[in-house]
Each structure stands twice: as structure tokens, then as C-alpha cells.
Design goal:
By secondary structure, the chain is α/β, with parallel strands linked by helices. The protein has one domain: Glycosidases (TIM Barrel). The protein is built from 14 helices and 14 strands. Strands 8-7-6-5-1-12-11-10-9 form a nine-stranded parallel sheet. A three-stranded antiparallel sheet has the order 3-2-4, with no helix packed on it. Strand 10, helix 12 and strand 11 form a beta-alpha-beta unit. The chain is globular, with a radius of gyration of 21 Å. The relative contact order is 0.14. It binds 6-O-phosphono-beta-D-galactopyranose (BGP). The site of 6-O-phosphono-beta-D-galactopyranose has 15 residues, from loops.
């Protein structure tokens, strides 16, 4: 079994986890620049300072996200380590990193643009020329090396000024700022880039870092999400006008969701949980809120602030393809207390060192489910294993566990393509070069084919070293996936 020559193989990264250079080239501050590092047991926080000078910290992720007082401003505290500031320094090492990807034979590279590098406050009329040039170089180098750019326009961050001045996505004004940013991207890079993602993991964003909102309550959250839907739809429409032939997705954090038992109450709870997450991509892919949205809003006391014309905007900007991340599956019973990625333990599956169930068959399940639901081409834009790697004396990592993970997942992808007839445009592994974890801010949670010498406190040479999985993946890509059935770790 192998895939067509047109299949896109590559890797995916995100600005604040990878790029660094946070005060260089005229870049403005971004919401993630105020986020501390954390761990599984100690969550990441956004540091802020109140009007009377008190320093505080608010948990900044997913359903754990906490409010930041309305009069507080995010704050960079001396002596605190903020992983986004240097990240793993792609800003200075992009040539070396892109060469590593090209040598791996990638023909696509997914990366996010740092909005505040192009619009330092987000509110300017004209973009920052140095920021534009930086991405010009990245795009040109990708093309020169035979890699198609796949651009995430907004990967969980925004210029912090938009969060402070307008409370981020809770304001409709931010839609205009986002569209100005998109117009610049499409006019400048459009001729060179076909594939675009309007937002990352729309069903997982919440709170200050990702949405720029000081409050995390349901009313604020769903209003912000409504504005994100509008912004995405308008961007798709604008992109199609300015870049004929361009194709748009928005990224969905997928996990296979299974009922904990055949008890009808568990199956019903599982159905509702699926709807909780499908809500986002249903709206963006179909161009209208799903019928069950009424129940979600009612149960959460949410009254959406819609304006006349909003429904038409959503209907006019539906996605061309469905892109998603897949790391794990989850189990739901009537008793489960869920967050976006959580669920009950599954006794049939092993977990990663970070407790994520490893479920390759779940990937095939999700591919089938998404195609049945939308009948649009699919793109796996994130999948990978976060693990602790040890650099050997020979400057490599014997990461057979990563090879097993990827091999099993890719085999299921192949089965979905060949046996189930699912159109899959491509696969970008998260993240080909080690970078900072989004959820915990750790460096020791490594995903890459390439080891980066840096620790959880930001210390290290930042040298890059190829792991065993690098050579394995190279063969997979070169054989269009055929080696998945012959070579193993
Ligand atoms: C997704 C994000 C990525 C990435 C990945 C792995 O949610 O889109 O930015 O980081 O998950 O998660 P983590 O870094 O928490 O292991």
C-alpha cells in the first residue's frame, strides 16, 4: 500500500512554540509571551499586574483557564522564564531547519505566522516590513527546497494589544483587525501559497493566551467563538477572491470518542460529548450553527450576540477541506467530567508518559467519521508522540517508541485511504523538530525527528541532532508509505 505522488508529507510547527525572536525585527508582544512554563502537575500561567501593582497568575489553558482581573495587564516579570521568547530559535535557525525537513523529503511544511510580527499591536493600518520579509524568506526557501507552505493564520495567539484594548475575540473589532492581517497575507504570499488554515484547534481555544479574553465564562467564550467563526468565514471568502485556486481549512482537535459501555445513558453522554466538539467544525464546515447548538447554549445560559447578516457570512465562507490534529481517543460515560481532550481511562490502551491514550485505530475511526460527516477532503495536520528522549554519546536518540507510534498511526491512515476510500490530502507530523509544548510549556515533552539541545528552563546550545526516527521517516516518505509494511524499528 502506498499513496499517490501528490500526497503531502511533512511536519507542523507553531510560532510561539518554535520561532522565538520575540523582540526582534519589530515584532510586537503576543499573548503567549506572558505565559510561564509548567508541567503536568503544575499548569502554565499568564503573569499579570493589577492597577495597584499586585502581581498575579492565571491558569492559561483549555478548560482550566482562569479569569484575569479586568483592570490587570499582562506582565513580564524579571527572573521568570517565558518559553515563547526564544522558543527553539527558528527565527535564527530557519535555514538549517528547513534544510533538515527537505532532506527528510518533506513536500509540505505547516507553520504559523506570528500575527504580532506582522502587526505589532494588531491595530495598525500597514504591516511591519521586516516581519513580511521574514516570512518571504521562509516561503521562498520552502519552495526552493520543494516544500509547499501550509500556513496557519492564527495558531492560538494574537497581538497582546488586541487583548488589552478590546478584550481579544470577545470584540467584533478584532474581526476587522484579523481581516486586515489576512488581506496582507493573501496579497503578499498568495501567489506562492495554496493551503491555508484560518485557526488552530478551534474547539480547544479558551481564555487569555488563545482568545485574548480576560474572562473565561461561557458567555464570553461562546461570543468570542462566534467572532472567530465570522472571521474565519470572511477570511475564506476573501482568500478565494484574492487567490483563485486557494484552499482553506480550519483546524479541529479531533479525538476518537467512545462510549464507556453499552448502557444507553453512557452512549447518550458520548453522543453529547461528540456534539460538544463537533459544534465548532460543524459550523465552519457547513456554514450554519448545528441544531444541537440550541441545547448547548441553553444549558450554559449563553445568549449569543448575533447581528443581522451573521448567518449569511457563515454560509458564504465554508471550509474547502477538514484539517485536524489527532493524538488520542477518549472514553465517555454519563459520569465523566470532561474537558476538551480528557475522558475516562481506557483499560484497552497504553498511554504516553503524559497520560494520553495511544490509539492508532482511533485515527482510522476519526478519518471515517469526519468524511462521512462532511464529504470534504481531509488533512491530518498534527499527529505525533510526546516523549522523553535521551541524547546518546553518538548524538542521536534511539526513539523506537516514536517509530512504533508513527508506524501504527500511518498504517491506519493507509487503511482508511485504501480500504475505506477516504480522500486524505496529506499528513504533517507534529512537530518534526523538538519545540516547546503548548500544554505544559516543557521542553522535555519532545515530538521531533530532530533533537534540540535545550532543557525545560531554556538552557542548552540549541544544536539540532537527527534521531533514529528521522531516518525511518525519510524512508517512509521516499517509498510513499510502502516501507510502513516492510521496515520496522
Ligand atoms: C495541539 C496544538 C499544538 C501542539 C500539540 C501537542 O493542541 O495545536 O500547538 O503543541 O497539540 O500538544 P502539547 O504541546 O501540549 O503536547
Amino acid at each position: 500500500m502506498k499513496v499517490e505522488k501528490t500526497f503531502l508529507w511533512g511536519g507542523a510547527t507553531a510560532g510561539f512554540q518554535y520561532e522565538g525572536g520575540y523582540q526582534e525585527g519589530g515584532r510586537g508582544l503576543s499573548t503567549h509571551d506572558f505565559e510561564t512554563a509548567g508541567s503536568v502537575s503544575s499548569p502554565r500561567h499568564t503573569v499579570y499586574r493589577t492597577k495597584n501593582g499586585q502581581i498575579g497568575r492565571a491558569k492559561s489553558h483549555f478548560s482550566q483557564a482562569e479569569d484575569i482581573p479586568a483592570d490587570a495587564v499582562p506582565f513580564i516579570e524579571e527572573g521568570t522564564y517565558y518559553p515563547s521568547h526564544r522558543a527553539v530559535d527558528f527565527y535564527h535557525r530557519w535555514q538549517e531547519d528547513l534544510r533538515l525537513l527537505a532532506e527528510l523529503r518533506c513536500n509540505v511544511y505547516r507553520f504559523s505566522i506570528s500575527w504580532s510580527r506582522l502587526f505589532p499591536t494588531g491595530d495598525e493600518e500597514a504591516p511591519n516590513p521586516d516581519g513580511l520579509l521574514f516570512y518571504d524568506r521562509i516561503i521562498d526557501e520552502c519552495l526552493r527546497l520543494g516544500m509547499e507552505p501550509l500556513i496557519t493564520i492564527c495558531h492560538d495567539e494574537m497581538p497582546v494589544f488586541l487583548a488589552e484594548a478590546y478584550d481579544g475575540w470577545s470584540s467584533r473589532h478584532v474581526i476587522d483587525c484579523y481581516l486586515r492581517y489576512c488581506r496582507v497575507l493573501f496579497t503578499r504570499y498568495g501567489g506562492r501559497c495554496r493551503y491555508w488554515l484560518t485557526f488552530n484547534e478551534v474547539n480547544a481555544v479558551r481564555g487569555f493566551a488563545a482568545c485574548g479574553t480576560h474572562k473565561c465564562d461561557n458567555q464570553t467564550h461562546y461570543n468570542a467563538v462566534h467572532h472567530i467563526f465570522l472571521a474565519s468565514a470572511l477570511a475564506v471568502k476573501l482568500g478565494h477572491e484574492l487567490m483563485p485556486g486557494s484552499r482553506f481549512g480550519a483546524m479541529y482537535a479531533a479525538s476518537a470518542i467512545y462510549p464507556a459501555s453499552c448502557r444507553p445513558e453512557d452512549v447518550m453522554a458520548h453522543l453529547k460529548q461528540r456534539q460538544e466538539t463537533f459544534f465548532f467544525i460543524d459550523t465552519m464546515a457547513r456554514g450554519a450553527y448545528p441544531s444541537y447548538a440550541r441545547r448547548i447554549f441553553k444549558n450554559r445560559n449563553v445568549t449569543l450576540h448575533k447581528e443581522p447578516g451573521d448567518n449569511a457570512i457563515l454560509a458564504d465562507g465554508t471550509l474547502d477541506f477538514i484539517s485536524f490534529s489527532y493524538y488520542r481517543s477518549q472514553i465517555i460515560s454519563a459520569q465523566t467530567q470532561v474537558n476538551v481532550l480528557g475522558g475516562d481511562p481506557n483499560p484497552c490502551l497504553e498511554t504516553t508518559a503524559w497520560g494520553w491514550p495511544i490509539d492508532p485505530v482511533g485515527l482510522r475511526y476519526v478519518l471515517n467519521e469526519l468524511y462521512d460527516r462532511y464529504q470534504k477532503p481531509l488533512f491530518i495536520v498534527e499527529n505525533g508522540l510526546g516523549a522523553v528522549d535521551e541524547l546518546t554519546a553518538q548524538n542521536t536518540v534511539e526513539d523506537d517508541y516514536r517509530i512504533d507510534y508513527l508506524q501504527n498511526h500511518l498504517r491506519e491512515m493507509m487503511r482508511a485511504i485504501h480500504e475505506d476510500g477516504i480522500p486524505v490530502l496529506g499528513y504533517t507530523m507534529w512537530a518534526p523538530i523538538d519545540l516547546v509544548s503548548l500544554g505544559t510549556g516543557e521542553m522535555r515533552k519532545r515530538y521531533g525527528f530532530v533533537y534540540v539541545d535545550m532543557d525545560d528552563t531554556g538552557q542548552g546550545t540549541l544544536e539540532r541532532y537527527r534521531k533514529k526516527s528521522y531516518y525511518w521517516m525519510k524512508e517512509v516518505i521516499a517509498s510513499q508509505g510502502e516501507s510502513l509494511w516492510t521496515a520496522s524499528s
